[in-house]
Amino acid sequence: MLLGLLLPDPCDKLCPEDFKEKARNLLPAVQGQVGAKDEDLRRALLQFIGDFANWDLSTNRKYLEISRGLVKAAHPEETPLVVDPFAGGGSIPLEALRLGCETFASDLNPVACLILKVMLEDIPRHGPELAEELRWVGAKIKQEAEKELAEFYPADSDGAKPIAYLWARTVRCETPGCGAEIPLVRSFWLSRKQGRKYALRYNLKRSIEKPPYLIFEIFEPKDDSEVPMGTISNARALCVACKSVLSPERVRYQLSNQKGGAECFFDNSGKRLNGSTPLVVITTSGEKAGKKYRVPRDEDIQAFARIQDRIEKKEAVLMGKGIISPIPNEPISEIRPSPNARGLTAVTRYGIKRFGDLFTQRQKLSLLTFVDKITSIDLSESKFPNVLKELLAMAFGKLIMHHNTQCRWNPHGESAPGAFGRQALPMIWDFIELIPLGESMGSFYSTVELISETSEKIGTWQKTIGTVEQSDAVKHPLSDSSASLWFTDPPYYDAIPYADLSDFFYVWLKRILPNHKITKGDNNDSGNPLTPKIPECVWNQAHIVNGKVKSQKFFEETVTKAFIEGRRILKNDGIASIVFAHKSTEGWEALLNGIINASFVILASWPITTEAKGRLNAQDAAALSASIHLVCRPRPEDAPVGDWGDVLQELPKRVGDWMERLQSEGIRGADLVFACIGPALEIYSKFSKVVDAQEREIPLGGDPEDQEPHKRGFLAYVWEAVGRAALEQVLGTAEAKARNGASGSLEEDARLTALFLWTLQSTNGEKNAPSPQPSPTRGEGEMSLEGEIEVEAEDEEAEAPKGKTRGFSLVFDVARRFAQPLGIHLAEWEGRIIETSKGVVRLLSVSERAGQLFGKAGTQAFSEHVEEHPKGPVQLKLFPVEEERTLPEIKGRSKRHKKSGAHVSDDSLKTQHDATTLDRVHAAMLLQADGRTNALRALLKAEQEKSPDFLRLANALSALYPKNSEEKRLIDAMLLAVPK
């Protein structure tokens, strides 16, 4: 993306001839001779950009030299300055340095600034030599820490060494006469690898003297049915002794009294009393590859007896160095952020009130030991002692990600991926405790080695040094017109509570780097012991600004100020690119308002698949499969006023042309929807303002349900244009023009279903089919935009779903924005083809509609009727069992939407008893599923004789249903049965 922004287009009449000549001389080194035409050079440059984007070529010397040569040829007089005011982890500025640009990276967050400083300043300045010293220092710290900590991780008599311990929090059964201890175990699987299947099972022991208790053993199951079910689901705990269920409220109460329940308590003799219970010790031996599992022994338990005394001694040592509270006692915010942002607050409901509560006693001792060694290491002989301290602090930050009580064991990979699988810290019932010693996964030295390798690689090819500063994006330190390129990935509205998440690391950095400038405190709030919150550009209800909680308005105002600053520091002939991947329409509207109010013209929007498909938040409602890159130029100060009539007339063609272009590139679904917004906004944002015939200004956003353009807003018309273009593609021209049942068009439910499935398509490939059961890898429970819906339960305590929740889902506001301008009334289809809950609209699966279409008797009664009356008319009446039916009201989008209160009227319900074309297609699919061949043939024949609509819709749905889904299989099989 940076190369595309930095290089001129050879087909542009203003492209310098000198650039073309130098490009033709550079490119043959990696792709052969370039053709004589400007179009040939354009294709060659695009091919080079595409090739260089390949990860395997990222540090290839030839490609580096050519890319830097091209940038220099495009900017011969002055090296371009690339500015990123929301630099975060530093991807954009690092790429800019790689291309030979000057770079200025800044962020408000101190943790981000430490990463930026090390990566953009220290590593390029000192090169691979820094990596060598880090390895030496890291090995020394490892050796000294092992001497102190080895006794707390005892090896087995056969020499096998522990690498991890699996623990479970516990609660007591409150049923009278029981009182059994319930280990909260989500899954008893230990390894699910092929040829290596291990699991836990238990034997229930009863005694007169004490409550029932469990004895665990490890075994090798032959099939899944042998493995016991977990004892905790959605925060409900099952007592295996009496089969009673402890409610989420009581589970929270008991764990709150234990400060989360991760700590294990012992008597003076070393016997466990209560708290968490050890389940499994995972060991490894140098003689035999692979992990081994065993139940805990007495020596494992006795290792805890001396921990508390050692912690107190270690705390005294650190307090002597000036660290007032060695174990972080800073409070975790208990106020839940805005609906989409989970943060760290889930754990506070279980008594984990301070950051120190996130660690077991043994983890605290280990972490304090490493803090002691890092802060006391003698670096007097090092060439760069301050930089080494920063690198060691970063290694420690990686360490604590794997050494806390919120880490899971993954039986599929026999691994522990760390606490932050997504941007939240969910409550974990059974957790893994890794060993920080040695060189295995999650150890301190493994993090040192990882950072050393990174330092070595970056330092080898990167010699240009960037500039890093901790600053607020709305008060940028650079002067006017100083940047050639303003390229940034700003905060995602309410999706991620960045500052709250970084506090997890910041509280430890304060103890390792007490005199560093990043730990100097919050300039905006002297009483804040954590990262800055007041000026942070997010919508987060946990933060108070001037006595009020942060709102959507705060985000829009703040991001607008940041974009105005970007416009100020950008040269008049400069270019800007803004990345966004938030799928809420409010988030998009706030961002786009900020861009336009900052006097930018949006020229294009490119979806780029920058995100890993397997990341957890890819399954969340806030994530796109691609990041949308908006390309902007400064709007001239003398930009004219636009005429609304002209803008509205140009909009459909602009959207249609861009959709066709993007689809030819493999862009699909939601990525396509949001990518179309950029070109549509060019015709709007190039004007200083747009007014109608009465001189009323047409705003960007507004009420999409209003009919007056000056109240409705431009974006509503963009959504309508995209929806009509989509319907025209999948159902035909008549459907794009259809509104309120226009003649010749399919009914509303068919158009809604087609739009739903069209939006859920994925870029560069078919979307996966929904799973019949909840995914085992998505335990936090997220609102999935594709496939089945899982309950929202980042703390694993939400209401359990009733039965299987199959189907496909969209954010309510996205569905509403499409439906309303196309004359589709969501309220009238609630409970019939859609189901709305918690701000998400779910398209019911075909199997869920069987009762509606055939009644309680199912397809059998319909088939028997057809067979008894083979020459009679084949009719399908919806809801064949005549009984009163009340459809549920539409629920709004969490707390940000009022309930519409829309119910289906009696008159409307009567008309809906008549089966639509979609109903008949679904009925045919169900007949196919049940093997009702005769009835299916009769129905298909009757539909063919009636009109072509049935087959037109069926073929469209066949193209839209995800490959490998049950719906796709059924509809294709049904189509094969259509008489030729």
TrEMBL record:
It comes from the Bacteria. Residues 763-785, 889-910 are annotated as: Disordered. InterPro entries: SAM-dependent_MTases_sf. This is DUF1156 domain-containing protein.
